[in-house]
């Protein structure tokens, strides 16, 4: 992985490559794009502000498509124009200031009005719409637009632009739509939050309803990822989709408990982690997950979600490495309170890790999630080699007790 925990650079085929080389590079590009979407999801889960997520989405979308520019266009109904709310690659004075027409004579306006994604690989020859001045001034030759949904109506458009003569393809459109969907969920959340602040008397009921809707939406995403994983012919892509499904499902379980409870600010960590472990036990037939969790360890909701994701990643790692090739393997999970620390322990009886393995230097997305969330929670991870197996213990501050 590259600096700052980023996914590998998306590679571009060379003109002299054989078809098999081009296919491999295209596959690597698709995998790189999937990792970028996972990174964006992690950024959203880690509590990035709305403005930070807008900027990060623009940056990562441009990177994933090898494009020079990307912008988030917010629709201004009263003016029938788009505001360049966030972006990357543009000259000074564009982001936060410049506007683009929202009529069907512009690529973004055409996408918004027709409700369909737009790919234009030859703007100079377009007959559907004109080339906006902002694109012409930056030498843009091709553009791709997808709708940004939010709270039942379009927030605007996510647009990627490039100076190169290459073509955007349908796979690129799927990646851009995935980035827009993640951002769309954040847009919906942000709008709900603003509404809730103005409805103090009803905020508890509304929060429960939001958690119910988010849980249902995330459950739908989980089902779609699992279906895609089963249908994908490439085992590497299928494996990544299955891992993404487990992460989304862990968050969905948190929202399920929130809308069923009276307090949306906290969760019983033991009960929550136990449910996540049961889901993993059912989803991964290779594993027999046994959970021993203390009750009454009440922590803030965001800390509970991060803690559960750490446990889920450690269980997934056990399936991938400890029991690789095995028909069945046991994983033992414990959640306990020791003084002012919460201990999350995940142990397996597998073949063990390589002697030179250093989890603090791990480059996989799973290890980076474990490290990032542990640091965010102010905790530490310890690894112990057993005979047989490996044990990971994550010690976290107990930030909230009843």
From TrEMBL:
UniProt GO MF annotations: ATP binding; protein histidine kinase activity
Keywords: ATP-binding, Kinase, Nucleotide-binding, Phosphoprotein, Transferase
Origin superkingdom: Bacteria
Ranges for domain Histidine kinase: 209-400
Lineage, broadest ranks: Bacteria, Pseudomonadati, Pseudomonadota, Alphaproteobacteria, Hyphomicrobiales
Protein name as it appears in the record: histidine kinase
Enzyme Commission number(s): 2.7.13.3
Alphabetical list of InterPro entries matching this protein: GAF, GAF-like_dom_sf, HATPase_C_sf, HATPase_dom, His_kinase_dom, Sig_transdc_His_kin-like_C, Sig_transdc_His_kin_sub2_dim/P, Sig_transdc_His_kinase_HWE
Pfam families: GAF (PF01590), HATPase_c (PF02518), HisKA_2 (PF07568)
Catalytic activity: ATP + protein L-histidine = ADP + protein N-phospho-L-histidine
């Amino acid at each position: 992985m590259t600096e700052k925990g980023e996914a590998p650079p998306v590679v571009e085929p060379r003109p002299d490559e054989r078809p098999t080389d081009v296919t491999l590079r295209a596959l690597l590009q698709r995998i790189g794009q999937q990792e970028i979407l996972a990174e964006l999801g992690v950024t959203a889960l880690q509590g990035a502000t709305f403005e930070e997520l807008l900027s990060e989405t623009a940056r990562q979308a441009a990177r994933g498509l090898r494009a020079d520019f990307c912008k988030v266009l917010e629709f201004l109904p009263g003016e029938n124009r788009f505001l360049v709310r966030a972006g990357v690659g543009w000259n000074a004075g564009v982001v936060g200031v410049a506007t683009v027409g929202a009529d069907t004579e512009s690529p973004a306006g055409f996408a918004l009005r027709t409700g369909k994604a737009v790919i234009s690989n030859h703007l100079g020859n377009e007959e559907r719409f004109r080339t906006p001045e902002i694109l012409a001034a930056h030498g843009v030759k091709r553009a791709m637009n997808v709708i940004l949904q939010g709270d039942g109506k379009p927030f605007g458009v996510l647009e990627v632009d490039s100076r190169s003569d290459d073509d955007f393809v349908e796979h690129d459109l799927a990646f851009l739509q995935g980035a827009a969907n993640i951002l769309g969920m954040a847009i919906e959340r942000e709008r709900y939050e603003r509404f809730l602040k103005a409805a103090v008397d009803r905020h508890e009921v509304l929060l429960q309803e939001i958690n119910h809707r988010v849980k249902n939406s995330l459950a739908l995403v989980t089902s779609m990822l699992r279906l895609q994983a089963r249908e994908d012919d490439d085992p590497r892509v299928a494996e990544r989709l299955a891992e993404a499904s487990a992460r989304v499902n862990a968050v969905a379980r948190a929202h399920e408990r929130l809308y069923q409870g009276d307090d949306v600010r906290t969760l019983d960590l033991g009960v929550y982690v136990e449910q996540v472990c049961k889901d993993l036990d059912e989803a991964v037939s290779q594993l027999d997950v046994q959970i021993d969790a203390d009750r009454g360890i009440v922590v803030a909701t965001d800390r509970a979600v991060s803690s559960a994701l750490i446990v889920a990643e450690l269980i997934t790692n056990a399936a991938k490495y400890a029991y690789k090739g095995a028909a069945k393997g046991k994983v033992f999970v414990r959640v306990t309170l020791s003084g002012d620390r919460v201990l999350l322990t995940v142990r397996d009886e597998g073949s063990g890790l390589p002697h030179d393995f250093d989890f603090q230097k791990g480059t996989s997305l799973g290890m980076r999630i474990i490290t990032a969330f542990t640091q965010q929670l102010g905790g530490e991870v310890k690894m112990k080699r057993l005979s047989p197996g490996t044990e990971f213990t994550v010690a976290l501050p107990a930030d909230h007790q009843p």
